[in-house]
Automatic annotation (TrEMBL):
Protein name: 3-oxoacyl-[acyl-carrier-protein] reductase
Keywords, comma-separated and alphabetical: Oxidoreductase
Broad class of enzyme this protein falls into: oxidoreductase
EC numbers on record: 1.1.1.100
Family annotation (InterPro entries): NAD(P)-bd_dom_sf, Sc_DH/Rdtase_CS, SDR, SDR_fam
């Protein structure tokens, strides 16, 4: 993957940051984008440059809820790399849970905007150059909730299932051009969103954080442990490798066996 260029959304923390590190370690130039204080982001870029001296690293800001900003983001990326990028990882996401009758419309709009509209617009902008070059990798971060659901997660499941649908359609269109498109579907991942859920569960049930973690994993995963960022990142890197040339349109579950029950 040396001299390939990757855009990873939501890459200032959590899973996105892990994927960016793993791609950088393989020689990819990296475009980071995500939320965070400017000083923290500046330090993050410096860290990448120091750790991976042979690659280029840029941070390009973008509010993925604003189509105009997505358009400006794509222009900025194309200015940096006129031949286009090679890898797009649509990782950015949000979580909000509530009974459907209490679910705020603005939260629904945010869920669809971040999880479906932003990936659609980014793929729309970048896939053309991938096709022209005859090589490309698109990875969409879905979830086990894209194939199952649970109470208070209907909108989240709808958005993640929709992302799987986008993945399948794009895979079929791009397949003759050497471009693959796949979805990774983690279960409960050892990432900031999951830890926020654990804290919320602990508060609701008057438990300590560790007790809440133990309680959840009695039923959450047969493996009784979360999926790690390292594991997700390694799968993403494999999907970008030549060994995955024939894997496209797949929704790859990493859920500790949860959905086979």
């Amino acid at each position: 993957m040396e001299n390939k260029t990757a855009v990873v959304t939501g890459s200032t923390s959590g899973i996105g940051l892990g994927i960016a590190h793993h791609l950088a370690a393989k020689g990819c130039h990296i475009i980071l984008t995500g939320l965070g204080e400017q000083a923290i982001i500046d330090n993050l870029v410096k860290e990448f440059i120091k750790q991976y001296p042979t690659i280029k690293v840029n941070y390009v800001p973008c509010d993925l809820l604003k189509p105009d900003e997505i358009s400006e983001f794509c222009k900025a990326v194309k200015n940096l790399y006129p031949d286009g990028i090679d890898i797009l990882v649509n990782n950015a996401g949000i979580q909000y849970t509530a009974p459907i009758e209490d679910y705020p419309k603005d939260k629904w709009d945010m869920m669809i905007g971040i999880t479906m509209t932003a990936p659609f617009l980014l793929i729309k902008e970048f896939v053309g150059n991938m096709k022209r070059k005859g090589w490309g990798r698109i990875i969409n971060m879905s979830s086990q909730m894209g194939v199952i659901s649970s109470p208070e997660k209907a909108p989240y499941s709808a958005a993640k299932a929709g992302l799987i649908g986008i993945t399948k359609g794009v895979a079929l269109e791009a397949a003759p051009h050497g471009v693959t498109c796949n979805a990774i579907c983690p279960g409960y991942a050892d990432a900031p969103i999951f830890h926020n859920q654990i804290r919320s569960y602990a508060q609701q049930h008057n438990l300590s954080y560790d007790a809440a973690m133990t309680e959840i994993f009695k039923t959450a995963h047969p493996t009784q442990k979360p999926v790690t960022i390292e594991q997700i990142s390694e799968l993403a890197v494999f999907l970008c490798s030549s060994g995955a040339d024939s894997i496209t349109g797949a929704s790859l579950l990493m859920d500790g066996g949860n959905t086979i029950r």
